Here is the input.
Amino acid sequence: MTVRTWCRGGAGAELLLRGARAVDPLAGLDQAVDVLVRKGRIAEIGDRLEAPARVRVVEAEGELLLPGFVDLHTHLRTPGREDEEDLGSASAAAAAGGYVAVFGMANTDPVVDSAAVLEGLSRQASAEATVPTGFYAAMSRELAGRQLTEMHELAQAGAVGFSDDGVPVATAQLLRRALQYAKVTDRYVAIHAQDDSLMGAGVMHEGAVSAKLGLGGIPAIAESADVARALEVARYEAGRLHLCHLSTTLALEHLARARDLGLPVSAEATPHHLTLTDEAVTSLDPNLKMNPPLRPEADRRALVSALRSGLVDCVATDHAPHAQYEKEVPFEAAPFGTTGLETAFAALYTALVAGGELSLAVLVERMSQAPARLAGLPAPTIAVGEPADLCLVDTSTPWLVSAADLHSRSSNSAWLGRTLQGRVTFTVAAGRVAFDDRA
Amino acid sequence: MAKRDLLSIDDLSRADAELILETAESFLPVLQRDIKKVPTLRGRTIINMFYESSTRTLTSFELAAKRLSADTMNVRASGSAVDKGESLKDTILTLSAYQPDIIVMRHPQIGACRLASSYTRASVINAGDGKFQHPSQCLLDLFTMRQALGRELDGLKVWIVGDILHSRVARSDIAGFQLLGMDVTVAGPPALMPREIESLGVTVEHTLDRLAEADVVYLLRMQMERMAEGANFIPSLREYSALYGMTLERLRPGQKVMHPGPINRGIEISPAVADHPDTLILEQVESGLAVRMAILYRTIAGYDERPADERGAA
Here is the structure.
């Protein structure tokens, strides 16, 4: 009963990647190398390798060669809102961001709450996705918070985990039952921690900036109080809980206590919470409206520290495409969410690695190998015999992010108009070239 | 040339604000004449777009435009294409096809005026956007203070009392009062006080014990329409009134009382205070006309101090 991903087939790539600086903490690599890929697998790693016949040579001196990234948290909008994203456009966006596997949340229309819906999606992914794509299943039917989904059958169909993300966990009792039953399925339960009564009608972080703008505040305790409750339940059941998109120092303190107790709890943080703050909301740009909201600098720093120490296991994008007309409205009326797949590495590299807050090796581990392990997939790594799951990154050319650059069907990116470094130029996913911006 | 919007008090420098107040003063004699009209904005088109109910602000902007001889149109959300599901963007694009010079806009949502401005070449004047800003109210409040207390406002102590959380007037007034050098205290029930409001440089009080220090007491009404049922911001209006309602007993002789209206007699203000000579509420309404004439005029003519008839040759 393994976690599965699906994508289109095809012949494995024949490539010689020359001269890039390979950074792979799992393989213990940080040096300029040549990497030969034959039939989609890494055949040889060395210095000044000769290109065999009919093998494409990619001159990549001065660029980074990294194990491909894995995203545990995307909204693929399919089925139901294919005008915002479909499996093909999501793959294009993922590949353009260096991702070699993505997992879609279950809050689609219909909800992924039965094996029939999941099987339909997996067939569609096999036909349309160019990057291996997997799926969460809902924890409760129709995300209604009442009846558990048939978790065993959904796990057999390949679901990576169970989540009602998109809405908070309805009751502590539902979470308890899901964590109990998840033991039968060997999957984790992922939650969007949010106390709705404290969230109220809030649209941004409650603090100095919301005081100035008059926007309804989402207090930090709306997240941390629900995290505390979920951790109590997880502790009681020794259940495998995954905390989505943590954003507050208060929640991290609860998580640290749970780790000290040895609980099997994992957590993710988004590129936007790791690099942006509520100060930016002063612009009233609806692309900066997300839930959880952007927090103050002190929380951002705490989150970066937690990612560095491993308290937060991995980066996940919470890629949330929205139609342009839905975001061309006043801030309060706009839906929550920013896209993130295409800008994740560049945003994090620019703010954290170039900014001196995080080492490149740690960032790579948190974007690639750590999430792969959580999902139960083989970790991408640059080693002989492994499938080619990798990307090349140009860290020297500044990239002014514009809507025209983006491959997602939606362009509601929090980074539009910002200048980043570290744009992905080439991605090989599951041994096939998924993105090539080098022509 | 970039167009001139007035979206927030923060758009103005102290000199800009003072110029508007002086311009308003220069319009006062016009309003005392038999023929209360000047040709200053003849041939200009001003659209008042009101997505939220309003008496004072709409009538005052409309009359101000007419006193300046501009052509005006009023568009309200109800009974217009907004009822038929048209988005703000499309309504603005449609009205902009008439080439208006100014769109005066009130909207229930924060930032709606800034968004509207991005879709039109007309100057946009914010006549109140949700809980964010109401700059013309702030300017008329400053004008009223100068008329009542003299032109030097530096160092005056103002207490703003009431529902600060839901008040765009409070947000504009805090910024505008500070811009002219006043010392601002906000007072009210804790749940109606925005968290971290101290960051705006105000003093926070939860009782009226130190009210005597205020030169001006600025009252706000409870915005019950913005409070969800069961939100429990306050236990009851009765208890609010007992704790914060302004009575003559709570006031020191000579303290001026202001209120943006509409007032709720017997809740935030006792009838005796409402009708007292030291209460400036009707003066505020009267100031509104001259100040809005000044805002419209400065939006077209700019903040250069030369009179309009000398600028043509420049």
Chain A is about 30% helix and 20% strand. Chain A has one domain: 66-383. Chain A touches chain B at residues 200-201, 206-208, 210-215, 217, 219, 284, 325, 328-333 (CB under 8 Å).
